[in-house]
Amino acid sequence: EAAVTQSPRNKVTVTGGNVTLSCRQTNSHNYMYWYRQDTGHGLRLIHYSYGAGNLQIGDVPDGYKATRTTQEDFFLLLELASPSQTSLYFCASSGDWGGEQYFGPGTRLTVL
Amino acid sequence: GDSVTQTEGPVTVSESESLIINCTYSATSIAYPNLFWYVRYPGEGLQLLLKVITAGQKGSSRGFEATYNKETTSFHLQKASVQESDSAVYYCALGRGSALGRLHFGAGTQLIVIP
User: Fold this and answer.
1) Does the first or last residue of chain A, that is N or C, have fewer Cβ atoms within 10 Å of its Cβ?
2) How many Cα atoms within 13 Å fall on the side-chain side of residue A9?
3) Chain A environment of B103 (Cβ under 8 Å)
4) How do residues A15-58 score in pLDDT, each as one tens digit?
């Protein structure tokens, strides 16, 4: 069965801090995604990738960088965190473009 | 761009009663979208509940059903008899055309089933 893990599960940082969220999938999927979820909003796509070294911009990319180092690992970087980035972050993977996405359990980030 | 609107939660239903969670989507393109329902149980990530890619078709899973209605641009989720274990957050989503993998999600509807 598909497995997507995220770390850390919870993170608290201060404004201006540096944060890296990690995601690993063991499904041999080509596509990986980073979303954020805020109260009153659906999940919104930040960045996605279709393979190691590839990065595509999503719908809400401002303030975020991402890097796909291997097929398994996809990282989300917040280099100057702001309170507006306090959110629940989900990583997902899929084997096909438009196919079922498999989600990790989420990382709750608080920026004070 | 595309948007998805769904029933605002929380929705509270007694066990064994019926459920409907409404979902409507914007019709911003002539390309018909793929439509999804995802569910998120407490402490877990989202998981696919059902998917329909053809207008007029019905998807079903775990007792839930949803019919893709292109005339009303709707994809309502229904269940005839809910169980306490159905308590979760339900998300309607769509992907369209060349952006098939760039899903647009509704805000989610929290379902609380009272035993």
Assistant:
1) N
2) 7
3) 43, 45, 101
4) 999 999 999 999 999 999 999 999 888 899 999 999 999 999 99
Round to whole Å and give the CA distance between A29 and A11.
27
Alpha-carbon gap, residue B91 to B2, rounded angstroms: 15
- Å between A18 CA and nearest CA of chain B: 25
Q: Find residue A49's DSSP bridge partners.
A: A32
* Distance separating alpha carbons of residues A90 and A33, to the nearest angstrom: 8
Residue A18: C-alpha distances to residues A13, A22, A70 (Å) = 8, 13, 22
Q: Rounded to whole angstroms, how far apart are CA atoms B94 and B74?
A: 11
- Helix, strand, or coil here: A84? helix
How far is the C-alpha of B6 from the C-alpha of B76, rounded, in Å?
A: 9
